Amino acid sequence: MAYEKIQALALAFPILTVAVAPDSAEACPGPDPCAGEDFWYDLVPVNAAKIPSDGVLVLQGGHQNGVDEDWLAKIELTVTKDGQPIAGALEATSQHGMLIWRPEAPWEAGATLQMTGKITNPPFDSYYECAAPEILFEADLVIDSEPGAPLGAVEFTAMQTPSLFPEVTLETLVCCPGATPSTGYGGCYGESDYVYWDDEVCAPTVQHGYLLVEMTADAPTSGPALAQVIYTLKIDGVVHTVSTAQQFSLYQDKPFCAVIEAQDVASGKVSASAEQCFGQDIVDKLGVLPIAPPDALTCELENCASNGGWDPAMCTPFEPEPPPTTSDTMTETATETATDAGSSGGASDTSGQDGGEKGCACDVGPGGDAGLLALVGLLGLARRRRVRS
To answer: What is the largest CA-CA distance in the chain?
Structure first.
């Protein structure tokens, strides 16, 4: 596989670990004073302009932490007609921050009602006021003359984009003798140290294959009833995401099967799509895979990772594994698919770093993988140590 292809593919996805100078740690923000607080930012009616005559009032808000059910008795919400209150109650849904108000008796078809509400946030434990002490909201409610359209079958389409990302750690790099890759500060939000390395004398020996699947569900109903629908993405039978949107994106490094469910929160009815499975035809191109170093590196490559650093006195000669025969096809397909999907290229300069280094390549990928350290044995990087005299 051409190393240039791997670099080009990695740059096609704007998911990068950015190097930050060590002295910039002082500029990192402190802990969020509101991180542990339970409060609401807002709460607004979603379908006030037209509620099905057999429907419910839907409200969507920003709720930090906490459980929606714990707030139902604390939120003041009044619905009136000509100044007279209408009996009803708030209910929580499976979507965090989404509440519904259900009238005790059926709505009056064609009626116009008034709604007012208030949320009183508790005093904050921190010195910082995380949100307004009181959240006020109001609206006129228009009840449709017709009931909502029934919930139909759920169908969804999906676009698949395979991708390969080099995985860079000291343990997965091989270099020419005398090269000294190192690790440094990974930034305010870095999960691990950033690896500085010169791509003229070093190369990663590990890549990670991922499959991006972007799913879009067709609307299972129409008209005002559509505002009452919540969508649930299930992966291999387990709830993955709940959303009011009909789109889901998922990165996986192994095959999986997906089902999208739609629920009408007014009736409680649930409709599920047929199961669709992804990645079974490219299972050998997903997960952790070896990379052949570029032909331009004609030196005797070695890995000298030892005790969290790079020790030139403790080196292992690189003994490459036979590359998968279809890796080049995988890379070309991923690049073409990413282009067709309209992915925007991430701006990353891998030709050099501040500090006089001749060249540097970046840690690139959707996320780290704790299993990479176990690859040392797999890739033959720790078969024997050579001690330089």
So the answer is: 94
Give the integer Cα–Cα distance in Å for 31 and 14.
26
Between the alpha carbon of residue 230 and those of residues 93, 156, 341, the distances in Å are 9, 15, 26
Angle between helix axes 3-11 and 327-340 (nearest 10 degrees) is 30
334: enclosing H helix or E strand: helix 327-340
pLDDT at 102 over 70: yes
Q: Which of 98, 110, 218 is nearest to 157 (CA)?
A: 218
| CATH for the stretch 39-142 | 2.60.40
Compute the mean pLDDT over every residue in the chain, rounded to the nearest whole number: 81
Show the 3-state SS of 265-314: CCCCCEEECCCEEECHHHHHHCEEEECCCCCCCCCCCEECEECCEECCCC
Euclidean distance between CA atoms 192 and 195, whole angstroms: 9
Structural tokens at position 98: 């989404």
Q: How is the chain split among helix, strand and coil, in percent rounded to 5? A: 15, 35, 50
Residues 6+ apart with CB under 8 A from 84: none
Q: Quickly count helices (H) and strands (E) in the chain.
A: 3, 25
Of 117-121, 272-276, 318-322, 375-379, give the lowest mean pLDDT range: 375-379
Residue 72 — left, alpha, or beta (φ > 0 → left; ψ -120 to 50 → alpha)? alpha
The pTM for the full model equals: 0.74
pLDDT 10s digits, 213-261: 999 999 999 999 999 999 999 999 999 999 999 999 999 999 999 999 9
**For residue 139, what are the β-bridge partners?**
115
Torsion on CA atoms 304, 310, 314, 315, rounded to nearest 10: 10
Query: With 0-12 CB in 10 A as exposed, 13-18 as middle and 19+ as buried, what is 325?
Result: exposed
How far apart, in whole angstroms, are the C-alpha atoms of residue 73 and residue 371?
47
Level-2 CATH architecture, domain 212-282: Sandwich (2.60)
pLDDT digits (tens, 9 = 90+) for 36-47: 899 999 999 999
pLDDT of residue 348: 35
